[in-house]
From TrEMBL:
Biological source species: Metapseudomonas resinovorans (Pseudomonas resinovorans)
InterPro entries: MFS, MFS_dom, MFS_trans_sf
Alphabetized UniProt keyword annotations: Membrane, Transmembrane, Transmembrane helix, Transport
Protein name: MFS transporter
Transmembrane segments: 26-44, 64-84, 96-115, 121-146, 158-180, 192-211, 254-276, 288-309, 343-366, 378-399, 411-432
Claim: Transport is one of the keywords in the record: yes
Amino acid sequence: MSDTIQPFPTTSALPAQQLKRTFTKVIWRLLPFLMLAFIINAIDRLNLSFAKLRMAEDIALSDAAYGIGAGIFYLGYILFEVPSNLYMQRVGARATLTRIMILWGLITVATAFVATPNQLIVVRFFLGVAEAGFFPGLILYLTYWFPAALRGRITASFFMAGMVAGMVCGPLSGTIMAHLHGWLGLRDWQVLFVLTGLPAVLLGVLGRFWLTDRPEQAAWLDDDEKQQILQALAVDSTTAPAHHGFRGVLRDPLLYVAGLVCFCIYSASNTVSYWLPTLIRGFGLEDLKMIGLVTSLPFLGGLCAMYVLGRSSDRHMERRWHLGLPMLVAAASFFMLDLAQDHLVLFIAVMTLGAAAALAAMPLFWTVPPALLSKSGAAGGIAIISSLGNLAGVLSQSVVGAVKSATGSLYLAFDLIAVLLVFGALVLLLGIPAHRLGKPTP
């Protein structure tokens, strides 16, 4: 992981090698835990897409009801996201993030015992409430420890954990559901929710002892290392926009431009996450293990793309085109899915390229908001942008479910997502000035 900070752009009077050693120490302390938390979080979102393949028969779950259940999670998330992030500034990241992990783990386990579509919808809503603030809280937490010159690579490494989850979740879910049916008297999909929910609870308890809120509070850093980190972070504050708290952020139109771009990206990434197994099954594959293996391919592609694009974006300190091009590639691929449906290899290749590009756009996007927001307005601003993006989870997944129920096909739904991606790329490139995102590094 130390490779993620090479080369280090010197942003202060401190020697680059000294800074590298300090930030390498921070990376090895924080990122393994945060990446593991993100992996478990992603699995606990993706598991529903695999459980659906079996639970639909047991609880009479239609595609439309599934779309509502997948989407209502984001409604609960959105309603409590901003308060959670603002509250995090008062009580600290450690208390906030660990509370969220424990609650979402317990509710994931409880999902195993739903018996009707309405019960699933209710549980998914409360799962969103429990998780509210986790992702924007993590993004905010990274700004406490890493300067902008490192944030593209750090954020990409962080999101790469989500791609690992996508690669692992398919084979893991397929194996659990294929071999553990009847364990403790539970059905296969019930076992899946139980075994993927408990690790979040355990990690939340561990986080109470492992995480540190800010550099100056870290007992595992010496005084010189603390000062190095604070000096590197201070450089960012001299170039930050002059907002005056949360209200000042709300008056900045770029906040809503960024939120709209986030909405378009999340529409694509959520559709990939929740509907990919169904799309693959519709091609004629029925074996759960095979579906899981094929589903892992886009996440493997996304993992590689995140690494390459994150390094390139930091090296050139260029964000807009590094983000806009993957959005356009994903859109073109989604448009081609319908044309490739009669050719298995071509279909898998196009699906993998489009899904990988859509997933790779997420970490690149999250290098943008910290550059647009002042230090005092970062917590609320990041939460607002994330909330606007998560509206995609409520709206797009309900629309996808309705289209699938009405037409029996997902191809039209993916065409609609492609249109959104093109629109989002144009909004990004035309609406956010390049100079607001930092100057290129020589």
